Amino acid sequence: MLETSAAAIAALRLSLVHGIGACLGRQLVEACGSFEGIWNKSPADWINIEGIGPKLLAALSQSNIKQAQAIVEQCKQADIQLLCSEDDAYPDALKATDDAPLILFIRGHINALSHPQCLAIVGARKSSHESRLIARRWSHYFSDHNTLVISGMAYGIDASAHGGALLGNTPTVAVLGCGLLCLQQRQEQQITAIVEHGGCVLSEFLPEQAPRPENFPQRNRIIAGLAQATLVIEADIRSGSLITANHALSYGREVLAVPGSVLNNGHAGCHQLIRDGANLVDSAEQVLHLLGWHSESTSKQMNFEPANNHEATIFDVLGQGILHLDALSEACNLTVPELSPILLDLELRGVVERLPGSRYTLGS
Description:
CATH topology of the largest domain: Rossmann fold
Mean pLDDT: 91
Number of helices: 17
Radius of gyration: 24 Å
């Protein structure tokens, strides 16, 4: 665990000043030379900095380093590490953004943040089974191809993206919209899995900060800022995922979107992104090709040896796409009673996967 730097303590102290956000904080750093330099200046020096009025001047003058030191000690007891933009371990991609957080609170392996290929995957909480399946399978593929998946650890697409990445060989990173000491049991379990896989979980919010609606749009800029590209899987026109995508565009990063049915409004946000110039993608391989991220897979391919001609036929037919049980029965020239026990056996072996509505697809 890294020792908290003097710069990080100074940055934390600055973040605690009411009215100081990421952008104004950056202006202060540029004017004073460093985070520590801010606190070496007098109020007379501060007042000459653009954006510092009487209220902010008073707030800065009343700042006490003891509050920051107490939080640092609290974090030390909870194995939470602190980084500011002056620390070497602070991720370069995030540092390059105009509104990078003044301070990051991190649990887990900080070195994951320096991975060369980082892809943000976002989408709806109330997503379809198919979209969650895409997120999980594609993230597994990305993780096996040296691509670190970043998401927000929420229900739906986020959870599926992290879950798929955990099946692969590359760590995953989660960005939270609350503090790292106010988590539910489910979230603690997710964090444990992420950290044990070599990844980390981070937040810019104080450790005991409860989740608030306004926190999540703010959190989304960090997800976009950490990654070279953002992939959106199922989002309606009002989805917070579009906020993440727009942040990515403002940072000059790539945005990719998965299309869906025009009869489902849950895909309307992705369709709007595509109309606005986002790359339309329909496979994980295409994503890496568009980004120029070519690497050898480190995964173990499914070693499926059909036990008979029926299994071989089912495997070949489902290789063409998802099929309803009735359509699969017809394609395989088997009755449903004949086909069902074969499918159950293949499902237990992970060769096929059953979807809602009695539809089947090949396993991941």
